[in-house]
Amino acid sequence: MDVTVAPSRLCGNIRAISSKSHAHRLLICSFLAGEFLPLDNMDVSADIIATHEALKALGNGEVSLDCGESGSTLRFLLPVVTALGVRTELLGHGRLPERPLSPLIEELEKNGAVFSAHSLPIKTSGKLRAGDYTLPGNISSQYISGLLFALPLLDGDSRINITGKIESAAYIDLTIDALKAFSIEIQKTPYGFLVPGNQKYKNNDDTAVQGDWSNAAFFLCAGALGGDITMTGLDLDCSQSDKAIFKLLSQFGAEISTDNGIHVKGTNKRNPLKIDVSPCPDLFPVLAVTACGAKGDTMLHNAARLRIKESDRIASTAHMIRSLGGEVTEGDDYLIIHGTGSLKGGTVDSFNDHRIAMAAAIAACICDGNVTIKGAQAINKSYPKFFEDYNSLGGKSDVI
After folding, report:
1. Which domains, and CATH codes, for the chain?
2. Is the dihedral of CA 300, 304, 310, 312 positive or negative?
3. φ and ψ at residue 371, rounded to 5 degrees
4. What is the pTM (predicted TM-score) of this model?
5. What is the mean pLDDT of the chain?
């Protein structure tokens, strides 16, 4: 699907869709509590369907679990199936087979799990044992979350030793919050985490999926780029790391308030910033687009892990901005956006990355001409109704 987006100003009220990150966690916890969380309690995307269907297959004793293109599904379930002692095969599509599993998979092997390979497709056997697990803090938080789901099921206590500073710590807090809601105890320690064994997940009927700051950020940034947006359904007290967008847009110069929702309105003041994106890597593409609306250089740094996402997000974001007439300087772990206040328009390759496709649509807010997004169906990974919501706010997007 290719989509053409005309320059427009986005204004109005909209409710945030449910959090993909939170939904993954609640689905897994509810499954381990012996029930399935209904999909009608959340906004459904390709990644959520992948986790739901994989858990459904696991519950039915099926050998093959298809993780789709979802890194969360794979990295969360790999420890879980080995803790359950289930023989299964994990499959994946798109870039997922290329995305790393080391050193998580080696730590699982040290503690009893057996794998046919270290990349997809992977057949699992053996059964995970309680013990010590060591992971560096500057790798994917999904590895740590996967262990936190699995280790409470084991017969003895386990330790997760974290070396160095934990990046994306808020995602781990989100996991711990979900586990607590299902009566699982995790103890934070100076070395990482102590996970008591022999715990049982207990179903929680009152647990609701939070509103999603990650996808809300696209429309909030559109508000900062000359629009006027109010989003409901978002909680500033939640553990989602991408709520950082609230403070960042204030620093950018937008008018922000919390009356009747999260309200962001553009002003004539747009400040270039220097932003460490390690706590909130999913914001990278839309922050880069927003920076194009400022005059001056914005630096997004500590972004090395973005090279192994659905696309190489440093390279694909740089390509997107250049395709629209902007200028950037790309480094190994950073991107400098040389903002001029506007972009020209042009044709953008989504690189089959949902966040690139959505960021390109937001870029149209400051473009002189149309933006054509190739492969815009990538939005289905996290936000299938994105263009419908975009148009409801006064946007002008049409499928070619």
Report:
1. 3-17+211-399 (3.65.10.10), 20-195 (3.65.10.10)
2. positive
3. -115, 125
4. 0.92
5. 96
